[in-house]
Amino acid sequence: MSESTEINRVKASNSRKITYAMPRLGSSLVLGIEGFAFFNLYYSGYGVPATLVTLAQAIGFIVIGLSQFFIPWISDAKYTRLGRRKPYIIALTPLLGISFIFLFLPSFMVPDLNDKIAIFIWFLVWDILFKISYSMTTIYQAWLAEQFEISERPAVSQFQNIFLWIGNGAMGIASLLIIPNYVDQLKIDIYTSPPIDYLLLIIIFGIIAIVLFFLVALLMPTEPHYKIESKPWETFRNVLKNRNYLYVIIMIGISSLAWSIVTDVMLTYSSDVLDLGGTDYYIVAAFLIIGILVFLYIWRKLISEKGKKQTLLYIFLFGAVFLLFTFMGLIPLGSGLVFGIIFVIGIAGMLGGWYLFPYIIYADVAEDDEKSTGELKAGTYAGYPAIILNIFQAFGVFVLGVAIDALPLLKVGSLEYSLGLIVWGPICSLILLISYYFAKDKITIDFEWEKKSGN
User: Fold this and answer.
1) 330-387, pLDDT tens digit by residue?
2) Nearest to 444 by CA among 302, 248, 301, 312
3) What's the Cα-to-Cα distance from 390 to each of 66, 107, 249, rounded to whole Å?
């Protein structure tokens, strides 16, 4: 493909943008609970040591890194009658839903629930299968560069993030209202059967993920047929010569150390340190949803007014300052409801801003490369960061588990919890400051050709 034959993207309607964005609801439900509730379920409920739980999660991150690296790369190489992306979405979607459901139901298959190694192995095996199938979402995200013009991508990402945070809101409510009740029952009797609301929640979430990804494969048009003349290894070498892209990967990897810790521990911090329970969770969940919607608007507006890079820097600074909040766990709080509200609003602000960015950046960098090489390697640019990204995430969650097990217990008022549930905040704050200065000095995500084209 030459520059003269570069892809002509058709201006997309809002209905097409919404159609494309829908699967983020399903992916946020399954991956959100996987990251948000599994630590609490397996550590607090089934009594698996924190180090083993986070080791399984770390291995899962490595697996998804390898899968997200190779599968999108392979999808670039072969154009079928269904295009490059749809065959993988159709093939991997059922495994995504099934593995998610089994991850939540070890009590149905593990005969001795007092055997923590057996539960650990169950978690590890199904998490690996879940992560392999979840790599399909990177192929789905690669479509962003092929289906939409650069000026449309922030709006598409906003639609995606509305679905994402609707899913996260539903996931958060479920995680706060249903899963903790089951965890509390497991603490009393580990052989307690999963209640019907818990079973329905898990099955419905798995089915939603399957249905929405099938729908987008059915309803979205097949991307234009364009040739990629470069051989796969040649493509790999050329991509590695893109210094700005490598800096972007490093920046995302560093910051993901913090984001992985935040998502993994936020529920445990809310329940163990802020001592939330009962009706508190209804109130906190409502503020979570409101915070998500407000911050999505704020960050999207800032992208339009200040540009992508400056907005990203604001998000890093916001997170770095807010995460010092975890020091509140060093003092007796009495009722933690007010602090719980503040906590979830801050989390919504950080993650709502961050989740706007990665796939916008990958699509824009891929198009920037297309300007010079004449080839759009969307799957390659979306998939290559996965190994670095997931190595950082794996390291982050494993260090969290080691810290919780190794650091001493604190007695704060009537509560007792690990010092690890306090120090994760300032550690993540420092990581985000490093990400801020690295991004400020090294990366470009607002391109000159973008401005000249009026996008």
Assistant:
1) 988 777 788 889 998 998 898 878 877 776 777 677 777 767 666 655 556 666 666 7
2) 248
3) 9, 29, 11
What are 238-283's pLDDT values in tens digits? Answer: 667 778 888 888 888 899 889 888 887 887 888 888 888 777 877 8
Instruction: Give the CATH number of the domain where residue 279 resides.
Output: 1.20.1250.20
Which residues have C-beta within 8 Å of that of residue 74, sequence separation ≥ 6?
A: none
Residues 273/414, Cβ–Cβ less than 8 Å: no
Residue 7 lies in a domain: no
Distance, CA of 351 to CA of 257 (rounded, Å): 13
Q: Does residue 297 belong to any structural domain of this protein? A: yes
- Give the C-alpha separation, 249 to 247, whole Å: 5
Amino acid letter, residue 385:
P
The string of pLDDT tens digits covering residues 409-452 is: 989 888 888 999 899 999 999 999 999 999 999 988 887 656 55
Q: How far is CA 181 from the centre of its chain?
A: 25
DSSP, collapsed to helix, strand or coil, labels residue 85 as coil
Question: For tokens 């201006």, what's the residue?
Answer: 11
Token representation of residue 36: 């948000």
From the list 154, 161, 164, 219, the residue with the least C-alpha distance to 20 is: 219
What's the number of domains the chain is made of?
1
* CB half-sphere exposure, 195, CA atoms < 13 A: 12
Where b means 16+ CB within 10 Å and e means fewer, 221-233 reads ebbeebebebeee
pLDDT reported for residue 211: 93
Residue 218: inside a domain: yes
Tokens for 279? 């009706």
pLDDT digits (tens, 9 = 90+) for 31-43: 777 766 777 788 8
Six-digit token pair at 187? 């603490």
C-beta separation of 165 from 296 below 8 A? yes
**Structural domain boundaries enclosing 181:** 12-452
Burial, 111: exposed, middle or buried (Cβ in 10 Å; 0-12, 13-18, 19+)?
exposed
Tokens of 401: 């588990």
Strands 409-412 and 415-418: what pairing?
antiparallel
Tokens of 455: 């996008």
CB 151 within 8 Å of CB 12: no
- pTM to 2 decimals? 0.66
Nearest to 376 by CA among 386, 361, 365: 365
In a domain, 1, yes or no: no
